[in-house]
């Protein structure tokens, strides 16, 4: 972890559970199924600790019925466990940025008791409406402080952690640009499931809004052309190359 503020912004990656779904859920028309990770990131900024998404709730540990048939949540892989392994008390986290409020992205929110949750306003409203069973109120309606934003948001006011809307998968999906000393990362989450999603402009078989989804992919494509490294939301092959629980080195094109 950080030894001095001179280190700038540090970025860490964790796996907090897995889910198995039809491949078409990620890439329309693809056969078979895929077991994909729930990807979580810790942003260590000199002025605060931030999580991007929180993976699955620890209520899924050991579950063999219901969603337990498709959710694999090994013991010791909750976001709180991942933080403690780095000697970070979960109560030290200042902010949780939820890309959206589905169960594999907001499930660990309650384990981060003192954080302010940052979410796009349309996402919060849609999640609270009960229209979509992929949202579970026990994951995100926890009594924590919620900051509902509209559009771009510079979290620390210095250009290093920029939240920006990437709607399409859900009404208020958002992604984050993180500038570290070694490069820029874009934490895409479900606006870009796989590397192939971006390489081929290949949408999933389900979108809240197809035009918005395509527009979000085009936005990511431009960022990638400008040198940012995209961290795809649910790509098991890509994720296998991402070092876990250590500061990521983003130097050079294609490092990750």
TrEMBL record:
The chain crosses the membrane at residues 9-27. Keywords: Hydrolase, Membrane, Metal-binding, Transmembrane, Transmembrane helix, Zinc. Its cofactor is Zn(2+). It comes from the Bacteria. Pfam families: Lactamase_B. Gene3D superfamilies: Ribonuclease Z/Hydroxyacylglutathione hydrolase-like. Signal peptide: none annotated. Residues 37-234 form the Metallo-beta-lactamase domain. InterPro entries: MBL_superfamily_lactonases, Metallo-B-lactamas, RibonucZ/Hydroxyglut_hydro. Belongs to the metallo-beta-lactamase superfamily. This is N-acyl homoserine lactonase family protein. It comes from Parasphingorhabdus litoris. The lineage of its organism: Bacteria, Pseudomonadati, Pseudomonadota, Alphaproteobacteria, Sphingomonadales.
